[in-house]
Every structure is written in structure tokens, then in C-alpha cells.
Specification:
EC number: 2.7.1.100
Keywords: ATP-binding, Kinase, Nucleotide-binding, Transferase
CATH class of the largest domain: Alpha Beta
Distance between the termini: 57 Å
Subunit structure: Homodimer.
Strand order of the largest sheet: 1-2-3-7-6
CATH topology of the largest domain: Aminoglycoside 3'-phosphotransferase, Chain: A, domain 2
Family: Belongs to the methylthioribose kinase family.
Helix content: 40-55%
GO molecular function: S-methyl-5-thioribose kinase activity
Number of helices: 15
Bound molecules: 5-S-methyl-5-thio-alpha-D-ribofuranose, magnesium ion
Structural class: alpha+beta
């Protein structure tokens, strides 16, 4: 039966595991354990032994951020494990941490310790310009989203996978409520920075915005298009200048392709709006320009790689080559690709807008804004981000290029 690990019990309880003996050394009394989990849901331990270091991640039967009053099934660890395996197969070795061991009953995963990696969100707050993230993440999204869909999988294989991940309902329920609904009314666990009240009231009275949010929720819940990471924000990515790893896919499920990309770009835009709060005498102008370049390049790489896969790996039942290329009509497949990318583009803008709102108005805020101690300054960073989010969500079918969106971000940020 499940028992949460502690710093004291971990070495004794995991002593018999080959994976740990191999990576740390067999003498468990020589292992040093630290608990480093600062996320919203789980326990995370760094375990260091004479031969090396590993991460042990264990789910808790409740939401850590809120406490035992909000139960959450341990099976999320099962979905995280299965998502990591698929992401590595689809995006390539080195795109996620290597997995050494999984114990379903104890809801624990032993995985590679990434060092000297840091959480991307932290690096962006510190003003670090990571040279690889746009390329690595654009490729990661295109490969996982394309290869996990009916564009590339056999219909039977995808339907089996859809059934496997369908049971991750409680985690989807968190997103359905915390992201798409709670920010738009006075939900109990919501909070926002003092000073934002007039804008918050305006947004919660905004009928077009609420309709857009519900339309996007509908898409999220009903469009089981591909295996998503499901929580692809900058806190779910670890980086060095040379390496990018995506972690934490416990929210994985079959949903709309645009969701992961939209959440990712939203988090870059939030990092952009938060820069004014981290200037402390040093201008962040170059960091702002860098973040907009990252947005531009992530989307460009995504589009190019998705298009390449479309042209070379379209082996699933959708838009079959037998309808187009085999009949000497390659332009038919190109027209279909344009339509698919266009609808993905509009949806990702909507998801991005809603993600920005929930991080400022809902329960789960992000460190980009939260680490700005001066609350008046924080509110001055968050207000333009909220306006930007509203514009994206409501006008997503009238925005035609990433340059247009970045231009809008710059203008709103300066207002
Ligand atoms: C109660 S969980 C709150 C948030 O933390 C996770 O990282 C997800 O983003 C979720 O929405
Ligand atoms: Mg997480």
C-alpha cells in the first residue's frame, strides 16, 4: 500500500532497487537525500550516492499546494511515466529525463538528475538568454504533437492510447476548472494582486471573453487530437545553454494540438511582461527583445517541423497520401496543411490568452510575477498582460502573424 517517502525512509525503502544501486552505488547508508519539491503537487527528492545522483519523484494523494482537503489520485504518476516514454520516442533521446524505474503502487518515478540544469522560468526571471530553447521546444512540440496524432499513428494504436490516457480525468478536471472557468468568476481559491480590482471586475463582466474561454474549454475537453504534455509552462522545462529537457507531463491526455504550444508561448509572453519587475537598475530591454525572438522562433520552428513531418511522415488515416500525392495532386495536401496550421494558430492564441489570465487571476500563479515583491509594480506588470490575454482570446480569428502579436505585446507593455 502507498506510503509517502521521507528523507529518512527513502534509502531503506529503495535499497533493494537495482536502478538505484546501479546509479548511486549499492550501499544505501551512503546515500544523501534532499527534498526539493517546490511544485504544486508532488514530492521530489535528490538522492546522491558515491557513484552518482538520481531524482525520485513521488505523487501524493492530494494537491500539495492546497493540502489534504483536495484529494488527487496517485495514478497521475502512471500517466507521467507513460507520457515520458512516448515523448522520448517521438521527440528523441535527450528531450526528456531518462527514466530508470517506475513503481505504480508507490506512485514513484526514479529518473535522471539533470545538472547543471535550472528551471527555465527561473533562468528567464534572472535575465538569462538561453540560446537553444526556441529550436528545441519548437521541435519538441511539433514532433510530439504530430507523431501522437492520427496524422502519424495507426487508428488502432491511437485509439488504444486515447483509452489509456482517458483515465487521467482528475488532472484534466483541474485544468478545466482552474484554467478555463475559475478566473472568470469569484471562485473561492482565486487571488490577485491588490490594485488590479477594477480590471479584474471588467474582465469578469466581459461577455465576449467568457464566451471565448468556454469555447476554448469545449475544444480542450472534446478535441482528442493528440497526446499533450498538458502543462507545458516554463516551470516544466529544465535548461542549460546547451540542453533543453521537458519534465513533468503528469497532466498528459489526448487533447487539441494547440494547447501545448499556446501554453508555452503564453509563458514566454508572461516572462516578457514581468521583466519590468526585475530591472532593479539594470535595463531588461535586451531580455524583452530576446523573449519576443524566442516566441517568433519557437512558432517558426514548430511550423517548419510540423510541415516537414506532414510531407514525410503522414502515415495515419488523416489526409492520406492516396488522396493527394499518389494522385499527382501534392497541392491538395499543401492546402490541407495550411488549413490545419491556420486553425492550430487561432486556437493556440486563444489558449495563450486564457493561460495568462489564470496565472494572474486564479489559484496557481507563476514566479515571473510572484517574485516581484513590490505589489504596485507587480500589478503594473500584470495589468498589461491581462489586457494582452483578453485581446488574444477574443480576437484570435483576426490575428494573422506572430509579428503582429509580438508588436501588440510591445505596444501594450509600454502603455
Ligand atoms: C492545483 S494544481 C495547480 C497547477 O499546478 C500545475 O502545475 C498545473 O499547472 C495546475 O494547473
Ligand atoms: Mg508540474
Amino acid at each position: 500500500s502507498f506510503e509517502a517517502l521521507t528523507i529518512q525512509t527513502l534509502p531503506i525503502r529503495l535499497a533493494g532497487l537495482d536502478a538505484l544501486a546501479t546509479h548511486l552505488g549499492p550501499d544505501h547508508s551512503a546515500w544523501k537525500v534532499r527534498e526539493v519539491g517546490d511544485g504544486n503537487l508532488n514530492l521530489v527528492f535528490i538522492v546522491e550516492g558515491p557513484k552518482g545522483t538520481v531524482i525520485v519523484k513521488q505523487a501524493l494523494p492530494y494537491v500539495r499546494l492546497v493540502g489534504e482537503g483536495w484529494p488527487l489520485p496517485l495514478k497521475r504518476s502512471f500517466f507521467e511515466y507513460h507520457a515520458l516514454i512516448r515523448q522520448e520516442a517521438r521527440a528523441g533521446k535527450g528531450s526528456v529525463p531518462a527514466i530508470f524505474h517506475f513503481d505504480e503502487a508507490q506512485a514513484l518515478i526514479v529518473m535522471e538528475y539533470l545538472s547543471p540544469h535550472v528551471i527555465l522560468r527561473r533562468a528567464l526571471i534572472d535575465g538569462r538568454e538561453l540560446p537553444r530553447i526556441a529550436t528545441d521546444l519548437g521541435l519538441f512540440c511539433a514532433r510530439t504533437l504530430f507523431r501522437g496524432s492520427d496524422l502519424a499513428m495507426t487508428a488502432r494504436e491511437r485509439k488504444a492510447d486515447l483509452a489509456l490516457f482517458a483515465d487521467n480525468a482528475e488532472l484534466c478536471d483541474i485544468t478545466e476548472n482552474l484554467v478555463f472557468t475559475d478566473p472568470y468568476f469569484e471562485a473561492k481559491l482565486n487571488r490577485h494582486t491588490p490594485g488590479l480590482e477594477p480590471l479584474v471586475a471588467e474582465l469578469r463582466a466581459d461577455r465576449d471573453l467568457k464566451v471565448a474561454a468556454q469555447r476554448l474549454k469545449h475544444l480542450f475537453a472534446a478535441n482528442a487530437e493528440t497526446l499533450l504534455h498538458g502543462d507545458l509552462h516554463t516551470g516544466s522545462i529544465m535548461v542549460t545553454d546547451e540542453d533543453t529537457r521537458v519534465i513533468d507531463p503528469e497532466f498528459a491526455f489526448y487533447g487539441p494540438m494547440a494547447f501545448d504550444v499556446g501554453m508555452l508561448l503564453a509563458n514566454f509572453w508572461m516572462a516578457f511582461f514581468a521583466q519590468a519587475g526585475h530591472e532593479e537598475g539594470n535595463s531588461r530591454a535586451s531580455m524583452r527583445a530576446y523573449l519576443l525572438r524566442v516566441v517568433w522562433q519557437t512558432w517558426s520552428v514548430f511550423r517548419a517541423e510540423f510541415s516537414r513531418l506532414w510531407r514525410t511522415e503522414r502515415t495515419g488515416m488523416l489526409y492520406a497520401t492516396s488522396l493527394f500525392e499518389d494522385r499527382g495532386d501534392p497541392l491538395g495536401a499543401e492546402q490541407a496543411l495550411d488549413e490545419v496550421l491556420n486553425s492550430l494558430w487561432q486556437d493556440l492564441l486563444g489558449f495563450a490568452g486564457i493561460e495568462i489570465h489564470r496565472r494572474i487571476l486564479g489559484l496557481a500563479h507563476n514566479a515571473d510575477f510572484e517574485t516581484i515583491e513590490d505589489k504596485a509594480l507587480r500589478a503594473r506588470c500584470e495589468a498589461p498582460a491581462l489586457r494582452f490575454g483578453r485581446y488574444l482570446a477574443v480576437n484570435r480569428d483576426r490575428i494573422h502573424s506572430i509579428e503582429e502579436v509580438n508588436g501588440l505585446a510591445s505596444r501594450i507593455e509600454k502603455e
